[in-house]
Amino acid sequence: MSGTIVLGIGNRLGADDAAGTCLVDMLNQRQHKAKTLHSGEITTIDAGTAPESYTSVIRRHQPDLLILVDAADMGLPPGALRTIPPEKISTLSFSTHSMPLSMFISYVKELCGKVLLVGVQPECTETGRRISRAVRTSVKKLAEAILEGRVAEISPLE
Prior knowledge:
The chain has helices at 19-33, 55-61, 101-108, 133-147, and strands spanning 4-9, 42-48, 65-73, 81-83, 93-94, 114-120. It has one domain (4-153): HybD-like (Rossmann fold). α1 (19-33) packs across α4 (133-147). The protein has 158 residues and is of the alpha/beta class. Strands 1, 2, 3, 4, 5 and 6 form a 6-stranded mixed β-sheet that branches.
């Protein structure tokens, strides 16, 4: 096992539901500027609404850390970031997926050192709207935390 995979989940057409895919874009831009894109340290994947389509990539890389990022209605202020423990996943509302995230995580956890689900509280997930300022700001902070190895500092959902 080696490195980190960041799997951004979401619908680009659904305003803040695009939080995970927006994060992947930001990470790719920052890694490109730093000339470390695909350096083996951090691999980014825009999974859209079908993270299960990328299980073969996860199996091939067997990362030390798999970070899943998705918009999740956690009842918090817009843009709030929380790590979501496995026992809380089924109680939250995530964006539309072909497979429940709890089932996906159960499947891939055998392929990784650690799986971390980061939820981003959306303000609006209405189709055709742009991502909100609050979510964009939080996603930028999350990108910095991932690149600096500080993702463990994100508070867990209580």
